[in-house]
Design a protein that fits this description.
Distance between the termini: 32 Å
Radius of gyration: 25 Å
Bound molecules: guanosine-5'-diphosphate
Strand order of the largest sheet: 18-17-23-14-15-22-19-20
Number of strands: 34
Structural class: alpha+beta
CATH class of the largest domain: Alpha Beta
CATH architecture of the largest domain: 3-Layer(aba) Sandwich
């Protein structure tokens, strides 16, 4: 039993995600953050854990072959009195929808840049998602042990392309073979970098910081004087770090290092602990499940992380960690209260009650049964399809958080199973994958084909692989006549009028919401003009 109050427990949580362009070093950094946090003992553990998972779940072959991570997971560790929840986001652009959902559960993001490459296309996309959700960003410029771009050019890029004030916390002294260390802005403390000795397997410790004036032994030629001079320019040229501006999303503290050489990692972890926000007060509605008789009007309210009732939302459903069981694990991000094992929670949108007897906490070292958890924590709730992405759960069953969005798919394909006797199986399998959010499913009102939608082509490959491996279904995807899907809304009479005229192009999504399947973007524009009272929506809020 915790001696801290609910506010204190919530206040010491740091729930964050790492965003990066593929290859910038997200996996390596994750591993070294876990090392610095004392959660693992040796580098290589994250990958090894990944390998185990892969042997258990064959569909992750894709992940292995392509070197990308498809499924997001959570790693929890305690360090320096704080509880860190690291949410892993998939890096590949085809999974942006998944990443988006994961970021809804994060209170802060670490943006990793490759020091030689700076901002890359995927960095930009992920950054935009963070900005949309008002998630503050800490920047980590990685791979200093390789030849880097000019540090000022890197910061200027952040300022001009992200419209974000960079506040350097440290400043690098050279890079690549000449990397000497880094100096702390403001204090002038110098953190030396110690290179691995030739032929050695062990990475050396980098030693303790010391005043720059005393660090002559770490430099060659005029390097030390150059650094002192650069420092003056830097201290005058950039705004000092301001936590308020950071929390409001106007400023990013910039740290430097080498994930691979475990350099700058403690400093990064300290920045997360000191500056990343604790779970925030969240907007919600108090609302009875749909179809409740005589339900009172919904009321807007805010949920304080320290309030007593356990509330939260499902931001991801992860399937089949074990392919022999059709279990799904719903990733539940807590917004308030103290969760205890065995607790009963209700799903707001269905009214269903769940006894959470075997919740999973994702401690970095291993999975463990959670005894209790607080706002900011993520627990895995095993279930058989009861929980979906976007669901709100609470003790009363009356708290509803704004839904997670579904995005209109950019590719729509028809899916058919080769063996016609398995059509029923296909329906179930497709529904399962849609519930997990792997792909979207549309059932046309006429005819019996299923239309499957995705944001990227890779999602279809993951889907085909999983249909084969987990459901024993051999499927073919065929082009569909549709180019775009739009959720429609408006008055019933207007909707009926529209749906009547476009019956062959009307479909239902997994939640039975009406969807218009357009043959081209021109047609989307055309129906929009012809039916001004009907709204055609590119996103749908779930939950
Ligand atoms: P991810 O795709 O962002 O997860 O990137 P990884 O962590 O898999 O790293 C991509 C490659 O860059 C791997 O070969 C890493 O060993 C390498 N790498 C990561 N961090 C560093 C670093 O700090 N220095 C150097 N030299 N290489 C690094």
């Amino acid at each position: 039993m915790s001696k801290l109050t609910l506010e204190q427990e919530a206040g010491r949580r740091r729930t964050f995600a790492i965003i990066a362009h593929p290859d910038a070093g997200k996996t390596t950094l994750t591993e070294h953050i876990l090392l610095a946090g004392g959660a693992i003992r040796a580098a290589g553990a994250v990958r090894a854990r990944g390998e185990n998972r892969r042997t258990r779940s064959d569909w992750m072959k894709i992940e292995k072959e392509r070197g990308i991570s498809v499924s997001a997971s959570v790693m929890t560790f305690e360090h320096d009195g704080k509880m860190f929840n690291l949410l892993d986001t998939p890096g590949h652009e085809d999974f942006s929808e998944d990443t988006y959902r994961t970021l809804t559960a994060a209170d802060c993001a670490i943006m990793v840049l490759d020091a030689a490459k700076g901002i890359e296309p995927q960095t930009l996309k992920l950054f935009e998602v963070c900005r949309l959700r008002d998630i503050p960003i800490i920047t980590f410029i990685n791979k200093l042990d390789r030849e880097a771009q000019d540090p000022m050019a890197l910061l200027d890029d952040i300022a001009s392309r992200l419209q974000l004030d960079p506040a350097p916390i440290w400043w690098p002294a050279e890079s690549g073979n000449r990397l000497r260390g880094m100096v702390e802005i403001g204090t002038g403390r110098f953190q030396p970098y110690v290179r691995k000795a030739a032929g050695s397997d062990e990475d050396p410790e980098h030693g303790d910081p010391l005043p720059l004036a005393d660090a002559a032994a770490h430099f060659e030629g005029g390097e030390q004087a150059d650094l002192a001079e650069a420092l003056e320019l830097v201290e005058g040229g950039y705004k000092p770090f301001d936590r308020e501006a950071f929390l409001e999303g106007h400023m990013t503290p910039v740290l430097w290092g080498s994930a691979l050489r475990h350099f700058g990692i403690e400093q990064l972890l300290k920045a997360i602990g000191d500056w990343a926000p604790a779970p925030k007060v969240m907007k919600a509605r108090k609302e009875a499940p749909p179809e409740t008789r005589n339900a009172p009007e919904p009321v807007e309210l805010t949920v304080d992380p320290g309030s007593a009732e356990v509330t939260g939302f499902v931001f991801k459903v992860q399937a089949n960690m074990d392919p022999n069981h059709r279990d799904r694990i719903a990733m539940f991000r807590m917004a308030s209260g103290q969760f205890r094992r065995g607790m009963k929670l209700k799903v707001q949108n269905t009214g269903k009650q769940l006894s959470v007897n075997a919740p999973i906490m994702f401690f970095a070292s291993d999975r463990e049964l959670a005894e209790d958890a607080f706002a900011g924590d993520v627990i895995g709730i095993p279930n058989h399809g009861v929980l979906r992405v976007g669901d709100s759960l609470s003790e009363s069953g009356l708290i509803r958080f704004a839904g997670l969005p579904n995005f209109a798919p950019e590719i729509l394909q028809r899916v058919r199973v080769k063996d016609p006797l398995k059509a029923k199986h296909l329906k179930k399998a497709l529904e399962g994958l849609a519930e997990e959010g792997v792909t979207q499913l549309f059932r046309p009102e006429l005819g019996s084909d299923f239309i499957v939608g995705a944001v990227g082509q890779l999602q279809f490959e993951v889907m085909a692989d999983r249909l084969g491996e987990e459901y024993g279904l051999d499927v073919v995807f065929e082009p569909s006549p549709y180019a775009e899907a739009r959720w429609i809304g408006g008055d019933k009479a207007d909707l009926d009028d529209f749906a009547g005229k476009y019956r062959p192009q009307m479909a239902r999504d997994i939640d039975d919401q009406p969807v218009f399947l357009a043959k081209s973007s021109w047609e989307t524009g055309y129906v929009g003009e012809r039916f001004p009272k009907v709204s055609f929506m590119k996103t749908k809020e779930r939950g």
